[in-house]
C-alpha cells in the first residue's frame, strides 16, 4: 500500500476514536487497559506474519525509557477519554493538540536547542488560540467544559512527555517501540484499574464489546502498524501535514455527526492552534 495512503487511513481512523470510546460503558482506565491488551495482540500477530522479531537484549539500554513512556502513554489515553466525557470532542481534541507546542517549549531545555523567532511566534499565537478555545471571550464557561479542557490539556502534557522520551530512543523501530510501550501500559494499568474501578467488562453488551474490539484492533493495532510502516517512506514534513487529518476529522465528526456546539471564537482559536503548530513543524522556502 502507498505510504501516503497508509498514513491517511490511520489519521482518518484516529479522528473517529471518540465515537467508539463514548459507546463503551467502562471507566477510562478500563478502556485504556483493554485497548492496550488488544492492540498488543494485534501487533504481535502482525510481527509474526511479516517474520519480524526483536531481542530484548539488543534494546536493554532503551527499556527503562520505553517502559516509562509506555506508562505515560496509558495515562495519556485515560485523560483524553475523560476529556470526551466532560466536553465536546472538538474542544477535547483541540486542547489535546496543544502537545506539539509543549514539546517546542521544552525542547530547548532538554536538547539544548535554541528557539527561533518563528517558533516563538508560533508558540505565542498557538497559546492565544488555546485561550480562545478555553472560553475567555464569552464562550462556554460551564464547570464541566473547563474540567474537560483540563483533562485534554493534561493528556497533551502526557503525550508531549511520550514524544520527548521517544527522542532519546533512536535504535528501536516504531512498531517495536510501540509494542514495548503497550506492554508497559498494560503492566501499569493493571493495578490502577484494580484499585480504582475493578474489571467490569463482563457487564458490557454486544455493542460495547464490539466498540472496544474496534478501538483495540483497528484504531490501535492496525492503524499503528500502518502509521509506523509508512513514516519511514515519507519526509518529516509530509508526516506532519498528513497528521493534521486526525484533528480535522475529529472536529467535523463533533459538529456534523454528534451535533456538538462550537462557537465562532473557539473555531478561530482551534484554527490558530492547528495552523501555527503546523507552521512550526514545516519549513517554508521562498524562491525569488
Model description:
The chain has helices at 3-14, 17-21, 28-49, 63-86, 89-96, 99-111, 117-134, 143-166, 174-196, 206-231, 236-243, 245-257, 264-281. It is built from 13 helices and no strands. α3 packs across α4 (63-86), α3 crosses α10 (206-231) and α4 crosses α9 (174-196). By secondary structure, it is mostly helical. It starts with a helix and ends in a 7-residue tail after the last helix. The protein has one domain (3-281).
Largest sheet: none
Order of SSEs: HHHHHHHHHHHHH
**Subunit organisation of the chains:** single chain
- What ranges have pLDDT less than 50 throughout 5 or more consecutive residues? none
| Beta strands, count | 0
Count of all domains: 1
Radius of gyration: 19 Å
Arithmetic mean of pLDDT: 86
What's the N-to-C terminus distance? 38 Å
Question: What global shape is seen?
Answer: globular
The level of helicity is over 70%
The helix-and-strand class reads mainly alpha
Number of helices: 13
Beta strand %: under 5%
What descriptors fit this protein?
RarD protein; 288 residues; 0% strand; membrane; mainly alpha; transmembrane
Topology:
Layout (H helix, E strand, L loop, with lengths): L2 H12 L2 H5 L6 H22 L13 H24 L2 H8 L2 H13 L5 H18 L8 H24 L7 H23 L9 H26 L4 H8 L1 H13 L6 H18 L7
Helix pairs in contact: 1-10, 1-11, 1-12, 3-4, 3-9, 3-10, 4-8, 4-9, 5-8, 5-12, 6-8, 7-13
Amino acid at each position: 500500500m502507498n505510504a501516503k495512503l497508509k498514513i491517511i487511513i490511520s489519521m482518518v481512523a484516529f479522528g473517529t476514536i471518540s465515537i467508539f470510546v463514548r459507546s463503551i460503558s467502562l471507566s477510562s482506565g478500563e478502556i485504556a487497559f483493554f485497548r492496550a491488551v488488544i492492540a498488543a495482540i494485534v501487533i504481535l500477530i502482525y510481527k509474526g506474519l511479516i517474520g519480524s522479531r526483536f531481542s530484548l537484549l539488543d534494546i536493554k539500554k532503551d527499556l527503562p525509557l520505553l517502559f516509562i513512556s509506555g506508562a505515560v502513554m496509558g495515562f495519556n489515553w485515560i485523560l483524553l477519554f475523560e476529556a470526551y466525557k466532560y466536553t465536546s470532542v472538538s474542544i477535547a481534541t483541540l486542547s489535546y493538540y496543544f502537545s506539539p507546542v509543549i514539546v517546542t517549549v521544552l525542547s530547548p531545555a532538554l536538547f539544548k536547542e535554541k528557539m527561533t523567532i518563528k517558533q516563538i511566534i508560533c508558540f505565542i499565537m498557538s497559546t492565544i488560540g488555546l485561550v480562545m478555545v478555553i472560553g475567555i471571550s464569552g464562550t462556554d464557561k460551564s464547570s464541566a467544559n473547563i474540567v474537560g479542557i483540563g483533562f485534554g490539556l493534561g493528556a497533551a502534557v502526557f503525550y508531549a512527555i511520550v514524544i520527548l522520551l521517544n527522542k532519546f530512543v533512536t535504535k528501536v523501530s516504531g512498531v517495536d517501540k510501540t509494542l514495548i510501550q503497550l506492554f508497559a501500559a498494560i503492566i501499569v494499568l493493571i493495578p490502577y484499574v484494580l484499585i480504582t474501578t475493578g474489571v467490569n467488562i463482563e457487564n458490557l453488551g454486544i455493542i460495547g464489546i464490539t466498540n472496544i474490539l474496534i478501538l483495540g484492533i483497528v484504531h490501535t493495532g492496525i492503524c499503528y502498524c500502518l502509521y509506523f510502516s509508512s513514516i519511514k517512506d515519507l519526509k518529516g514534513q509530509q508526516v506532519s501535514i498528513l497528521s493534521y487529518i486526525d484533528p480535522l476529522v475529529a472536529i467535523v465528526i463533533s459538529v456534523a455527526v454528534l451535533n456538538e456546539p462550537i462557537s465562532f471564537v473557539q473555531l478561530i482559536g482551534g484554527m490558530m492552534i492547528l495552523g501555527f503548530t503546523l507552521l512550526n513543524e514545516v519549513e517554508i522556502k521562498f524562491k525569488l
